[in-house]
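Schema walk-through. Below, the input block comes first and the output block second. Nothing else is stored per chain. Lengths vary across the set, and this one has 457 residues.
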Amino acid sequence: MNIQSVRHIYFLGIGGIGMSALARYFHLMGKQVQGYDRVASVVSRGLEAEGIKVFYNLDPNHIAHQDMVVYTPAISRDNAEYQAALQAGIPLLKRSEVLGIISRDYQTLAVAGTHGKTTTSAMLTHVLQVCGMDCTAFLGGISKNIQSNFRHGQSQWLVAEADEYDRSFLSLNPWFAIITSMDPDHLDIYGNQEAMKQSFLAFARQSQHLLVHEQLKHIDWGKAVKTYGIDSGDFCARRLEVQGINWQFDFVAEGHIQARISLPMPGQHNVANMLAALSMAWMMGAKAAELQKAAATFAGIYRRFEFQYHDEQLSFIDDYAHHPAELEAAISTARKLFPQRQLVVIFQPHLFSRTRDFAAGFARALSMADVVLLLDIYPARELPMEGVSSQLILDQLRAAVKQLASKEELIPLLDAYIKPPAAILSLGAGDIDREVPRIASWVQAQAGSLGTLANEK
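--- output ---
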């Protein structure tokens, strides 16, 4: 299908992070873009502010006169607008199919992995921009450097976040691909880890060149690969130092230290993510001084270890972590930053199937905290499963204080349990982000009270 000749495009689930990036692309191309989403969000309101019409009610009439409908796997096949498009013979394309079609006109740099792909693709986009490679980018998060999940460039380069869910990344044929990790996930789709691995191998076969994390070097990728990692790999980060919330390291390429890097984003996992981006740019001809500047000016991504408040007594950090490995990375990073503070984690599990499959892993990661408040599972696309609830995690938790909580109970429970100096983490991929402003306001009020008490003393 020649999508460039299409005039009217409708998005089912337009508020999704991947869908909204495509909507922005087509809007910039001069297409008439509209779409539906279940509820208003920061993303959908941003689209509206840019002139894209978003509907929050289902109506088959919205589909009339559309030339193409783009949908996500989360959209049910009995959705009224999906059915209207089907019956009218309007072409229906998955989000991943559309991204794959767009990418054919570019030299695609794809970032895949069960963790780290959003941060790494945003980092790569920023690094290439600073290094003078004017890339187009489709991201799975909002980059603070561009204040968007989409960037329109003028070069042949395209950065694409390659999503393994529903095997979506198999729609891409990258010139160069990064694979950050392959921990078991999306077992509701794959069934088992081996099936997921085979999907990644298929993705690797479709990529001309491959850069993988050092921990994945043992896999037979069927081609020559470059590796990156902490202290080992073709590209590596050495002499890591923590300077406040900044992390510094030597960028080693071709067996030699090329630059001392300062990254204003904490966590060893983020050092690895930036290392992948720097390594890719180095192979594309970037200079050491350019890489230093790029890393130092990376502003981060919304909901990726994002500081909402920070002072000597209280800190509040919000993160999208929704897999045991991601929780472990976020919580261990907070522990390293604030070793003497009480650590309080608010976690909203995402999906019944993921909670069922990884309850023990969630419990192990959360047990690193002093206080854990568990919200109900965010179902997303799933129906409830018998016997699966947040209680599964709670029963295996070893934190000193652990409790199931409703959203309405969060502030009273924080009042009851917080003992400054403290660090609070809100973690999850559901709608926990809607509670962030309320928690941040409470933290700021508490910090003000602590300041008043200190002055009185």
